[in-house]
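Support case: user asked for a sample of complex input and structure output to validate their parser. Sending the pair below.
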Amino acid sequence: MRIILFGPPGAGKGTQARLLEEREGYTQISTGDIIRSAMKNETPVGKEAKAYVEKGELVPDSVVRKLAEGAIADEGYDDFVLDGYPRTTQQAEWLTEFGAAHDAPIDVVISLEVPDDVIVDRLSKRRVHTKTGDTYHLEHNPPPDDVDPAHIIQRDDDKPATVRNRLAVYREETAPLEAYYEARGTLVTVDGVGGIEDIYDRITAALEAA
Ligand code: AMP
């Protein structure tokens, strides 16, 4: 199955995509993770992306398109969960064309619905493990005692000023994609508020019904 996990930053896309990978065997394709790794390794893409990511802006469509399409091709065009792609109408249209060209259309778009106040709380208290990429929430899912605190950091773009910009960019550029997928008959909305396991159960139920 080809799945998109859709929603604002902090909706839980990454957390749920990782669970779907661990438990159901889908491959998580996160353009954000690919970009962060490119930035860390100072590749040409990483250097180009850096200024955008640090401001909470979107990286240019043409750059992200190559990363996403390359990752989908690497997975044999099936059994993946896209997390953080597409984020603009242009990206969605390219993805539809790419799917048609490879006989690999997106089967279902799970939209995680989370109100703004919950998002701001989640992002401001989100912490990430520098080596494993595991994410934590300082209150609801704190890093376990055996994890070295030196490896637990806050993403620069999770700091308040950047979060506000990311939410504004989401509303302006990304939120309209709900209507795009609704019109294509692939959109399913899922309540993204609650415990990680409860939300996971809602997602797997939605996938079974799709
Ligand atoms: P994420 O980890 O998904 O929140 O992504 C982190 C940052 O990477 C975003 O704020 C953007 O700057 C960039 N990024 C990730 N995915 C995309 C995308 N599909 N289009 C444009 N920029 C992206």
